[in-house]
């Protein structure tokens, strides 16, 4: 289980659910999962918590959970409606799965979905269309990402010749680690690896081709799978979204642009003012209690939190409005 600072551990919604006797099965960095009467279903609630470098911060981005949920529902009910996925109910339709005294709860309708319970596979299914983040760091060190050799001379933000599938480990309380195809196959088997690889690349390409005419580049994204596509899908927490104009300007400088996500908070976290010291949170170890407490003691400037929710809402609007207008 991740370390979650006490102040942001519970929200009004999770307190109401717990008070109503709904049992929490798992608490992640951002999402809380609750058991339902049906053993086949789970209730997933998105909070306003924010994490960087695998640390949950002692801060809330007000409204972020609603944006994440709306985007997941959007993708799984429009572009991916024919892709096998775990979504069972959303909005007011979740009420039929809930105890009567917790129904008709507007805030819960905005933040929660009911999903089919899955046995999740033990890898993160990451697709990269552009070189940045941990992929850029690996490339600088080895000329490759997850064992995939890349052309020489690339820079942060370079578009790759083809999207690549670059799995990583899945850690609850530490850093995820990029792994090779052979390492991933050793973890989940060749048949499952090929299934997830092919599905991830196909889903990424479909989303990329949808977003590009809206002036949005999906630089990379993380999927997760059980028997079907599950967990969050193409949100600002799991993906890098770049504006095409911003990308063109950054590319001229051989840089990657600031996207519609929490990157400004990440950047500030590398030089966080904590007490009388400047701390690079990216270099702390989330498995160490002292480091967890140090990261949690950072008072995130309010302007960064406002900037973050502004970016999240803007990408939600830009991605969803064209599809809804056409329907």
From TrEMBL:
Its EC number is 6.3.2.6. CDD domains: SAICAR_synt_Sc (cd01414). Pathway: Purine metabolism; IMP biosynthesis via de novo pathway; 5-amino-1-(5-phospho-D-ribosyl)imidazole-4-carboxamide from 5-amino-1-(5-phospho-D-ribosyl)imidazole-4-carboxylate: step 1/2. This is Phosphoribosylaminoimidazole-succinocarboxamide synthase. Belongs to the SAICAR synthetase family. It comes from Candidatus Doudnabacteria bacterium RIFCSPHIGHO2_01_FULL_41_86. Keywords: ATP-binding, Ligase, Nucleotide-binding, Purine biosynthesis. One of its GO terms (biological process) is 'de novo' IMP biosynthetic process. One of its GO terms (cellular component) is cytoplasm. PROSITE patterns: SAICAR_SYNTHETASE_2. Pfam families: SAICAR_synt. Residues 26-271 form the SAICAR synthetase/ADE2 N-terminal domain.
